[in-house]
Amino acid sequence: MKNNYAAIAFFLILSAVQARAGEKTNFVFFLSDDQLKADYGCYGLPVDLTPTVGRLAHEGLVFDKMFAAEAICAPSRTALLTGLYPIRNGLFVQHASARSGTQTIYDALTPLDYDVSRVGKVHVKPDSVFRWSTPIRPTKKKLPADDIDAYFSSHADKPFCLFIMSHYPHRP
């Protein structure tokens, strides 16, 4: 299958633009389902119920014009991980599998010496496509904050791309 990194190239370009002398930019993605822009103080919610997210937004990069490639959680997640619309990567309905040989952000960043890891919900398959350098133990109860802190400490000298994915989608 042809390598199609069109959307993933955005991350690489951003890394090159933001990189300081000889350093690579680290990426941390917080993924959750069923949330709107209006749910956050950093996007204008009058009552700031998300002060930590607000601080991260103030110190980091905020996207004002984004969209979901699919209105279903797993297909939307695969679009971010592969850089392809779900209909192109094969996982366009819930509980389906991506096509064998589909390239992911792991395939784009590990040759550049990045650790590409995740913690929390994955809910995408197959494992042969969606690989991770360091899959942090999954839990259905809560995100393992101690493991996330340990990950950051152990990767202080290596560039990383970490996906933190909530197990609490589809809740009020």
What does this structure look like?
With 172 residues, the protein is α/β, with parallel strands linked by helices. The protein has a 3-stranded parallel beta sheet. The longest helix has 10 residues. The protein is globular.
Mean pLDDT, all residues = 79
Overall form: globular
Strand content: 5-15%
For the secondary structure, the number of strands is 3
Number of helices, counting only DSSP H or I runs of 4 residues or more: 6
**Poorly predicted parts:** 1-7
Q: Return the string of H and E elements.
A: HEHHHHEHE
Radius of gyration: 16 Å
Helix content: 25-40%
**Main β-sheet, spatial strand arrangement:** 1-3-2
What is the SS-derived class?
alpha/beta
How many strands, what sense, and barrel or not for the largest sheet? 3 strands, parallel
Distance between the termini: 40 Å
Briefly summarize what is shown.
By secondary structure, the protein is an alpha/beta fold. The protein contains six helices and three strands.
Quick tags:
6 helices; globular; about 10% strand; 3-stranded parallel beta sheet; about 170 residues
Topology:
Blueprint: H1 9-18, E1 27-31, H2 51-59, H3 73-82, H4 86-89, H5 105-109, E2 115-120, H6 145-154, E3 160-165
Parallel strand pairs: 1-3, 2-3
